[in-house]
Design a protein that fits this description.
alpha+beta, globular, single chain, 29% strand, 4 helices, 316 residues
Length: 316
């Protein structure tokens, strides 16, 4: 296997700084709704440029009612740029990420003719959607949303194409903005919701292969989207400790719960293993020098999560 050379990025790109720790930076979402939409996307997929003003407004309201995040997806490379005929059926997915109380993540697959079909469907109970099936697929999505941020396009597209070619099973998709341009190339594994950043060609392939094997790749891990930032930090820290001891832990064998820290500026979370073991992780959010959150933006406040302590705890 020949690994491609990473493309050069301009010196003012937002993804060049690497002093912010990745754990604790995943977008906090429990339900992700994916709609296949080849061709171009607007800067914000619901700003009216992709679906028109009226449909965008009601789609935004629908997502708010369901408590879900809508992503547009397409196949990598030239195939993903081909606009389908009007009325052609498109694939759609609903990922319920689980992650609390050892609840398992689920992925439902179905078809629609367009975004407006989503409005009449019971998205909050995907098992009741006509034609929806509980899928055993694992999807790896790479953000390539060029109109949202230059870094995601320049750094994300080659990686999406590379991983798609290596796996050749249809599990890899390009997607719209997931959050975290400054960590490009970024990816999210669904249905678990594990989110990644600063990927290379080899680490991106490892993420996709781990997801297919019901494992959690630690390189580039930002956190699981069902968890709060401090829970993401804590889970990543515990997974690292267990991995260093030679123990592989599947996605739904750890359950986090946020705690009240005992000191100012500290945050804590308890991580419980399905077998009864538990850990308490304390973390601090520290200030970093200002920097742009996206390419072309003015510098703004920046922070990084730092693990202060990790010790055995009780399950309750």
């Amino acid at each position: 296997m020949t690994t491609p050379v990473a493309p050069a990025v301009p010196a003012d790109s937002c993804s060049l700084p690497v002093d912010e720790n990745l754990p604790g930076t995943a977008a906090c979402e429990r339900i992700w709704i994916l709609l296949e939409y080849p061709g171009g996307w607007g800067r914000d997929i619901l700003d009216g440029t992709t679906f028109g003003t009226d449909l965008s407004l009601v789609l935004k309201e629908k997502m708010a009612q369901v408590g879900a995040r809508l992503l547009l997806v397409r196949q990598p490379g030239r195939e993903g740029q081909k606009v389908k005929d009007a009325g052609a059926r498109r694939r759609a997915f609903i990922a319920v990420t689980g992650g609390k109380g050892f609840s398992g993540a689920k992925l439902y697959s179905f078809e629609v003719r367009g975004a407006d079909d989503l409005l009449a469907l019971p998205l909050e109970t995907p098992e009741n959607i006509p034609g929806a099936v509980l899928s055993s697929e694992t999807l790896t999505l790479f953000c390539t949303h060029s109109k949202r941020d230059r870094c995601c396009a320049v750094r994300g597209r080659p990686i999406a194409s590379f991983v798609s070619e290596q796996l050749a099973d249809g599990s890899v998709w390009e997607c719209s903005h997931t959050g975290g341009h400054r960590f490009a190339p970024v990816a999210i594994s669904l249905p678990t919701g594990y989110t990644y950043g600063r990927l290379t060609f080899s680490s991106a392939l490892a993420v996709a292969e781990a997801a297919r094997g019901n494992r959690v790749e630690l390189t580039g891990l930002r956190g699981r989207s069902a968890h709060s930032p401090v829970e993401q930090v804590a889970e990543a820290a515990v997974r690292r400790v267990l991995a260093d001891a030679g123990e592989q832990v599947s996605p739904d064998h750890l359950s986090p719960s946020e705690m009240t820290a005992t000191e100012p500026d500290l945050y804590a979370a308890r991580i419980v293993h399905r077998d009864g073991r538990a850990w308490v992780v304390t973390a601090r959010r520290t200030k970093l020098p200002p920097r742009p959150a996206s390419c072309g933006k003015e510098p703004g406040p920046a922070f990084s999560w730092e693990v202060v302590s990790l010790r055995p705890g009780t399950a309750a």
